[in-house]
Write a structure and sequence with these properties.
Distance between the termini: 17 Å
Order of helices and strands: HHH
Strand content: under 5%
Number of helices: 3
Shape: rod-shaped
Largest sheet: none
Helix content: over 70%
Amino acid sequence: MKPKSNYSKVMAAFYIFLGFIAALIVLEVVCFLTFYPLLEDSRVLRMAANAVWLYIGAYAYYKLTRRYTKWWRKLESKDSE
């Protein structure tokens, strides 16, 4: 007998979305505190560093949530709840 989960697919999607927004806020704060003072002369380099930083952070968030949470498995499950 499988243990019953105490949250639905909607809640799993909400947790993923909320966590992603929180991760983006933290990534932006870190970017503004580190990359912007270093690259204050070039606007193009700041935008490129910001884009690369956010992409790497989003990928890391995806990999970590996929590995350490059950949210993705809940969304991918075939049973409808």
